[in-house]
Every structure is written in C-alpha cells, then in structure tokens.
Amino acid sequence: MIHILLILCSIFTISTHAAVQDFCVADLKGPQSPTGYFCKPAATVTTDDFVSTGLRFAGNTSNIIKAAVTPAFTEQFPGVNGLGISIARLDLAPSGVVPMHTHPSGSELLLVTQGSIVAGFISSANAVYVKTLKKGDIMVFPQGLLHFQVNAGGVTAVAFASFSSATPGLQILDFALFANDLPSKLVEATTFLDDATVKKLKAVLGGTG
C-alpha cells in the first residue's frame, strides 16, 4: 500500500507541476512516468531548453512511404514537458504517404505550408472525413482516431502538426499488422486477407511469423 501511495504521489506531483511552477523542463537523464519526465533543477535550465531549430530542415523521404516526420516532442524539445503541447514537421515527397495511424495520447492540428495533401480520419462510428488541403489550410484529427496524409501533387508537400500532448504517441496500423512477429494465421483471421497477401506485406515491412 505504501508503495502504491508513493507512486500516486509522484504522478500527482508531475501532473500538477505546470500549475504550481512556471515550467518543468524535462530531465531526460531521469526516469519517465506516465505523465512525463521529472523536472531539471532550475539552476541548470537555459534558454536553449525552450528553443528548437530542428524543424528548419527537411526530413529524409528516401524510404518506403516517401515521408519523413521530424518531431519536437519532449525527448527532442525538453521545454514542452508538462505543458500539454508539441509539434512536428511532415515532409511528403511526390507519392508520399503517412499510412493510417493513431496518436493515443493527443489530438493533432495539421497546417499545410507547401504543396497539397489529402488528409482524413475515420470516427469510431466508421464515418469518413477527407479533404484536400492546400497551403494555409488546417485540419484537426481527434485523439486516438485513425487518420492519414497523402501527397496530392507532383511536388514535395510540407506541413506542421501540433499536438495536445508533449508525448502524443504513435501507432501505424500497417506496421502493427505486418511489421512484427504476429503469426500470419492470426493476421489472416482478423483482417480477412489471404495467406499470400499477408506474407507479401510482412516481407515488405520486415515482419515475421
């Protein structure tokens, strides 16, 4: 019981630090709890903890999905720890795609700054919401819902995604099904795909089983 109370107290301390302190820059050398990292000592905090320059540069889109996501989450940008916000840069080469995925810990707001992107999400009632976004357009993706982005033009598209969490999390559906050791027979049974298709997709994405 004492052990449980200590854990609860530590979680409460981290979750309320933004309300009782100006900030809580993440101590990335320490442990991470479900609500974030513990705070760095105030004496060691510098201006650089609140500044990130990583989103200036395009990500490497030389991969199977022709896309790159450059995050500025707590691990890359310690100053957002505990603030309930973060951001990432999305680069989509022509024909690039961010496959169907979810962010279990945060909602997403996408701002297109270059090119055009077809984006959409699927509600828990299986309603589909899809739109072609152009420069200056924004779209919101509610927390936990499956969503995607596809380059809609012949040039590289760029967008910035802000999140309602410093660590929004990520699970890509294709990778969850075909990039691990989940036995093919179980994948077939739960997706209604045939054996050849499942094995082909596992081979493409590096899965086994």
UniProtKB/TrEMBL annotation:
Family: Belongs to the germin family.
Disulfide bonds: C24-C39
Binding positions (oxalate): H103, E108
Entry keyword set: Apoplast, Disulfide bond, Manganese, Metal-binding, Secreted, Signal
Annotated ranges, domain Cupin type-1: 53-199
GO cellular component: apoplast
Protein name: Germin-like protein
GO molecular function, one term: manganese ion binding
Signal peptide stretch: 1-18
Cellular localisation: Secreted, Extracellular space, Apoplast
Pfam families linked to this entry: Cupin_1
Domain of life assignment: Eukaryota
Organism: Tagetes erecta
Binding-site residues for Mn(2+), renumbered to this chain: H101, H103, E108, H147
InterPro entries the UniProt entry points to: Cupin_1 (IPR006045), Germin (IPR001929), Germin_Mn-BS (IPR019780), RmlC-like_jellyroll (IPR014710), RmlC_Cupin_sf (IPR011051)
